Amino acid sequence: MLQERVCVIGGGPAGLAAACEGARLGLKVDLLERNQIGTNIRCAEGFYDSLHLLGKPQAGLRFKVQEAVLKVQREYKVDCRKINLWMIDRSEWQRSLAEQAREAGARILENTRVTVDILRDLQREYDWIIDSSGVPSITSLLYGFRDYYRRYGAVTAQYVVEGDFSKLGERLKFVLFPHYAGYYWIFPKGRDATGRETANVGIGYFPSNGKGKRGDILWEELNNVLEREKIEGKIIRRLGGLAPVKLREQLRYGNILLVGDAAGCASPLHGGGIDTAYVTGQLAARWIASGQAYDFSHEVWRLLRRKLKVEERLCRLWERLDADTLDHFAGLIARDYRSIGIRWFATHFWMLLSNLGTGIRFRSGLLRGEW
Ligand SMILES: Cc1cc2nc3c(=O)[nH]c(=O)nc-3n(C[C@H](O)[C@H](O)[C@H](O)COP(=O)(O)OP(=O)(O)OC[C@H]3O[C@@H](n4cnc5c(N)ncnc54)[C@H](O)[C@@H]3O)c2cc1C
Q1: What is the pLDDT of residues 221-251, one digit of tens each?
Q2: How far is the CA of 273 from the centre of ligand 1 (A)?
Q3: Domains, the chain, ordered by start
C-alpha cells in the first residue's frame, strides 16, 4: 500500500503531536514551521491535561502544581494534588517533541512559512494537510473565515517577568472578574538552568464582555495588575493575542484538517488549549492512518463535546454572577465554606440546585477527566 503523504503546517503542540503520531503510524510526514520550533510561543505554560489522555509531560517539566490560589474578593486555596496540572517550559517541551517526531521519521522544515498560494500547491502535492497553524489559521485566509477567531476569541496580554516569586512558591494564582469578563493569572515558573526566576503574568477577557477591551486598555489593566499584586522585576517579554474559545463546526476543507487553535479548540472557560491542541493533532494523524471511515469534524466533536458542554454551562453561569456571588462560588470550588452562611445558601438555593449536575461533572472532569 502507498504511504499517505501528509503535510503538517505549524510546529506548536497540535502540529508536533500530529507529526509524532503520524510518523509513528507509518505516514510520510513533512512539518513546515515558519519560525524555529520552540520560539515565539504565546502561553502562560500551565499544562492542564483536562481529558486525562496525556499524563505528566516527558520534557520541559518545571513542577507539578499542588495548590492554586483563587481570588475574587477573598483568597481561597484550591488543592490541586489530584488535578493533572503542571508548569512546563514549552520551548523545551516542544523541542523534545520535534526530536521525537524526527526519530519516528518525520521531516521538519523550520523557517518555512506557508502562504495562501503555497497552501494551494500543497493541497495538490499532498494527500492530506493538517493545519495546526494557530490563529488566524492559514486555511481561514484561503477559505475566508479569518474573522471567526476574533468573534469567538478571548483577548489576552501577558508579561514574562523576571523577579522574586518565592512568596507564591509553586502556586498558580487566578483572579476572576464577575460576569464572565475573564481573569488575570500569575504563573510562577521557578528557576531555569541558569538560575533565573520568572513568572508569566497575564490577563484575558472573554468574548461577550471582551468587546472594547483591546489594545492599550488591556495592557493598561495588566500594568495595574502588576501594581496591585506588587510585582516588581524586569519585564523580559511582552506577548498576547487571541485564544480561540469556540470549536468550529466544520473542521475539514477538502483535504485540509483543522486542529488545535486553528480549530478553535481552547477552553471557553479558561482559554487553555495546549492539551486539546495535542489530542486533536494526534487524532488527525490517527484518522488519516485508519482510513478515514468517519467524518473528521464529528470525531473531534465526539472527543471534546462533553468537556465543552460542561465548560460552556459554567460560562453561562459565570456570566450571571456579580462579584459577591462569584466570590462564594470560588469558595465552593475551594471547598472553603467559611463565608457561606445559611442566608446566602437559602437565597441561592435554586441557582445552586439547578447547577448541581454541572458542578458534579466539572469536579469529575477536573479530577478524573470524566466529563
Ligand atoms: C497569553 C496566552 C496564554 C496562554 N496560556 C495557556 C496556558 O497556560 N495553558 C494552556 O493550556 N494554554 C494556554 N494558552 C493557549 C495555548 O497557547 C494554545 O491553545 C496552544 O498553543 C495551541 O497550540 P497550537 O499548536 O494549536 O497552536 P500554536 O501553539 O499557536 O502553534 C502554531 C504554530 O504554527 C506556526 N505557524 C503559524 N502560521 C504559519 C504558517 N503560515 N506557516 C508555517 N507555520 C506557521 C506558528 O509559528 C506556531 O509555531 C494561552 C494562550 C495565550 C494567547
Answers
A1: 999 999 999 999 999 999 999 999 999 999 9
A2: 8
A3: 5-62+83-151+248-302 (3.50.50.60), 153-244 (3.30.310), 311-368 (no CATH)
